[in-house]
UniProtKB/TrEMBL annotation:
<comment type="subunit">
    <text>Heterodimer composed of Spt4 and Spt5.</text>
</comment>
<dbReference type="GO" id="GO:0016779">
    <property type="term" value="F:nucleotidyltransferase activity"/>
</dbReference>
<dbReference type="InterPro" id="IPR029040">
    <property type="entry name" value="RPABC4/Spt4"/>
</dbReference>
<dbReference type="InterPro" id="IPR038589">
    <property type="entry name" value="Spt4_dom_sf"/>
</dbReference>
<feature type="binding site">
    <location>
        <position position="6"/>
    </location>
    <ligand>
        <name>Zn(2+)</name>
    </ligand>
</feature>
<keyword id="KW-0808">Transferase</keyword>
<dbReference type="GO" id="GO:0006355">
    <property type="term" value="P:regulation of DNA-templated transcription"/>
</dbReference>
<dbReference type="Pfam" id="PF06093">
    <property type="entry name" value="Spt4"/>
</dbReference>
<dbReference type="InterPro" id="IPR022800">
    <property type="entry name" value="Spt4/RpoE2_Znf"/>
</dbReference>
<dbReference type="GO" id="GO:0008270">
    <property type="term" value="F:zinc ion binding"/>
</dbReference>
<keyword id="KW-0804">Transcription</keyword>
<feature type="binding site">
    <location>
        <position position="9"/>
    </location>
    <ligand>
        <name>Zn(2+)</name>
    </ligand>
</feature>
<comment type="function">
    <text>Stimulates transcription elongation.</text>
</comment>
<keyword id="KW-0548">Nucleotidyltransferase</keyword>
<comment type="similarity">
    <text>Belongs to the archaeal Spt4 family.</text>
</comment>
<protein>
    <recommendedName>
        <fullName>Transcription elongation factor Spt4</fullName>
    </recommendedName>
</protein>
<feature type="binding site">
    <location>
        <position position="19"/>
    </location>
    <ligand>
        <name>Zn(2+)</name>
    </ligand>
</feature>
Amino acid sequence: MVEYACKKCRYITEEPTICKVCGSREFTKEWHGYVVIIDPEKSEVAKKLGVKYAGKYALIVS
Ligand SMILES: [Zn+2]
């Protein structure tokens, strides 16, 4: 199973068509580490990353 990360917002998905978070069409397989954001409203990590939607986000995208 290959997962892709959005180059713009780092959202991780298995379907690299259009990012449902930011609308970008640029994805990469080259990403490292991830965080799972369950409740962006209450998550300090989400605030730091600028994440507004629940999901899985890559920490490093190249
Ligand atoms: Zn995105």
